[in-house]
Write a structure and sequence with these properties.
The chain has helices at about 5-15, 20-25, 30-45, 60-85, 105-115, 135-140, 175-180, 185-190, 205-215, 230-235, 280-300; strands spanning about 50, 55-60, 90-100, 120-125, 145, 160-165, 165-170, 185, 195, 220-225, 240-245, 255-260, 270-275. The chain is of the alpha/beta class and about 325 residues long. Helix 1 (about 5-15) crosses helix 2 (about 20-25), helix 1 crosses helix 3 (about 30-45) and helix 5 crosses helix 11.
Length: about 325
């Protein structure tokens, strides 16, 4: 393995073709510089320079080594840049799991902004049930996930990014849609024929519906059980109404009416961001920054949308970004 210090000495001498000027550039005297050149020639077993009292010139071997050192320096600079781009999340791959209901949130717009800002990051978006996400995060198959609260264990560093109000979704020709005002009381909604959520496939929304019933003191009138987004097809089929997160109101608006629920207390549909315990992917933090800026921009422009309750006292509706861990 060649000594890089010797190569540096040779590169400067090959550029200057003068030992005195080369020594000054290297902040050393001429004798040790000459010794270094001789050491390099001994290691390579070739003569690199032809010296005389008046001039220094490169041998053919020296000319080749000079070109190779220049190429190596460029390659090293590119390597350093590439490593830093990966570390800071400017290039690479970002694997994100998304619970089906989160696809109707503002996240796709944030993801579009991220892809515009970081076009060299390949984004893999995977639809997955929240119950499957922790294992995938722990085993390195995901970098981050948007999931519902029951499955976000502490080692996944969960952060609440959305707390959506709840709405009653009904067909446009449903009696409630025809007679209700712009919103409906929770107690009245729970007495409608409702499509509930199966515990095994939609545990979180099953629990939310039970909490709403306890809050109102009324057992939900469940006539069928399903999961998001299939529940929308059942609403369209006239099977019943359903209590859904507000962002779902962007779907099938031509056939479904979404009525805000009044009297839910502090019960919302929460969405959490969870990270892989391994960490180390800078693109995760970059995406969080994009989400923060995007939400801040919307609030500044006064864009009308269903009200989203922030997870903290930050103005943008996102929790403060934690300090990036080194190593």
């Amino acid at each position: 393995m060649l000594d890089t210090r010797l190569l540096k000495c040779f590169a400067v001498v090959a550029e200057e073709l003068h030992f005195g000027r080369a020594a000054k550039r290297l902040f050393m005297t001429q004798p040790p510089l000459s010794q270094n050149i001789r050491k390099l020639e001994a290691q390579l077993q070739v003569q690199l320079l032809v010296r005389s009292t008046r001039s220094v010139r490169l041998t053919p071997a020296g000319e080749l080594l000079k070109r190779r050192i220049t190429a190596l320096e460029k390659e090293m600079a590119q390597t350093i840049r590439a490593v830093r781009e990966i570390h800071f999340g400017e290039k690479g791959r970002l694997r994100i799991a998304l619970t089906p209901s989160a696809a109707y949130s503002t996240f796709p717009q944030c993801l579009h902004a991220f892809r515009q800002t970081y076009p060299d990051v390949t984004v893999e978006l995977i639809e997955m049930n929240s119950s499957e996400m922790p294992d995938a995060l722990r085993h390195g198959r995901l970098d981050m996930a948007l999931m519902r609260p029951p499955f976000a264990d502490r080692d996944l560093s969960p952060e609440r990014i959305l707390a959506e109000p709840l709405m009653l979704a009904v067909r446009k020709d449903h009696p409630v849609a025809q007679t209700a005002a712009k919103r409906i009381r929770l107690a009245d909604a729970l007495q409608c024929e409702l499509i509930g959520y199966a515990r095994h496939s939609s545990r979180y929304f099953h629990e939310v519906l039970q909490r709403l019933g306890m809050h109102a003191g009324i057992a939900p009138n469940i006539v069928h059980e399903s999961m998001i987004p299939t529940v929308l097809a059942l609403i369209e089929a006239g099977v019943g109404a359903a209590i859904v997160p507000a962002n779902l109101g962007r779907a099938r608006a031509d056939t479904i009416t979404y009525l805000p629920l009044h009297g839910c207390g502090n019960i919302h549909a929460e969405l959490l961001l969870a990270r892989s315990p391994e960490g180390g992917n800078g693109a995760v933090e970059n995406l969080i920054d994009i989400m923060r800026s995007w939400h801040k921009g919307r609030s500044t422009r006064g864009t009308r949308s269903p009200k989203v309750h922030p997870a903290s006292h930050t103005a943008d509706g996102l929790p403060p970004r934690p300090a990036r861990r080194n190593g």
